[in-house]
Amino acid sequence: MSQTYPINGERAALNKRIVLCTGEKGGTGKSIVARFLLDMYLANKINVVAYDCDSNNPQLWRHYNRVVNGGVKTIKFNQRGFNEIFKNDLQQLSPTVALMDLPSGVGEYFKDFVQDVESSSLGYRITMVSVLGRVKDSVIQLKRLIEACGNQVDYVVVRNLYWGEDQETFLKYNESKTRQAVLELGAIEVDFLPIVDRVIDRIDSLDAGFTEAVNYEEIEVSVMGRLTAWITRNEPEMIKAGLFLRLKGITSRNFKSIKK
Known about the structure:
The chain has twelve helices and seven strands. By secondary structure, it is of the alpha/beta class. The protein has a single domain (9-194), classed as Rossmann fold. A seven-stranded parallel beta sheet has the order 3-2-4-1-5-6-7, with helices on both faces. The longest helix has 20 residues, at 221-240. The protein is globular and about 50 Å long. The relative contact order is 0.17.
């Protein structure tokens, strides 16, 4: 079962968030988690700017560019001048949330990015959303993340249950010193429940966002039922980390009233 832990009230009180979805091991499911979070921000009319930093697989851009005000920005996290471009966006657009979907292999840049944002005094707190798969590499990369960022950021650890819903799946994480360390830093753990492959494949074929697909007439009834059930099951999990994801105070949606 997911649970929450005591957190620093002063940190949590910051109203504006930079949310980075990361999973340094490729294939953990960080992009679908980023898509889900962006879907929630849009559905709840939260002022969000989104960045797809994965040029090899720009899922966030492909599914949400049409529906995000100003579009989803595509930019490499490790390109020269990224920090200045990003800070200028924060100053000019003043979003409530800046969401990034990051590729693997950029962890070495986290420390400098965090320090640069903190020194700019723009009033944002960073949340690292670390998406875990079942392999040991996920835990190793989380360990490197907390070594680089320490208590300068907040952590949401997402156990992607696509890899299995039993305790054995995440045994390496559950029994690790890394888990103990990240919880001592105030991390919130959530579970991300899986969706049937054929449902996600159908949505991908339409390049649609999750909520957008709910209102597509061409979506089959069986797909629609599974999609809305999946959203309904996962929203409460994300809301558990509401303080760090800027989702505090929202409630899960009733799709009976959303379907046109």
